[in-house]
Amino acid sequence: MRLIDDTWPMPVLLGVLSLGGLAAGIFGDGAWDALCWVGLGVPVAVTTWWLWRQWRGRQD
Questions:
Q1: What keywords were assigned to this record (predicted)?
Q2: 5 within some domain
Q3: Which residue, 9, 31, 34, 35, shows the most beta carbons closer than 10 Å to its own?
Q4: The whole model's pTM is what?
């Protein structure tokens, strides 16, 4: 079961952040907009960082 424990936490966290960001965008303005940007921006930033790291690893 170690593989499941290593694989799922990050995708679940990114999914929860995305869902929270989408919900915050629906609920209102002001602070809700900031939560929306964070909730939707963090998964994009993490994915971009991960892809960049994978791409740079193949260059060496």
A1: Membrane, Transmembrane, Transmembrane helix
A2: no
A3: 35
A4: 0.77
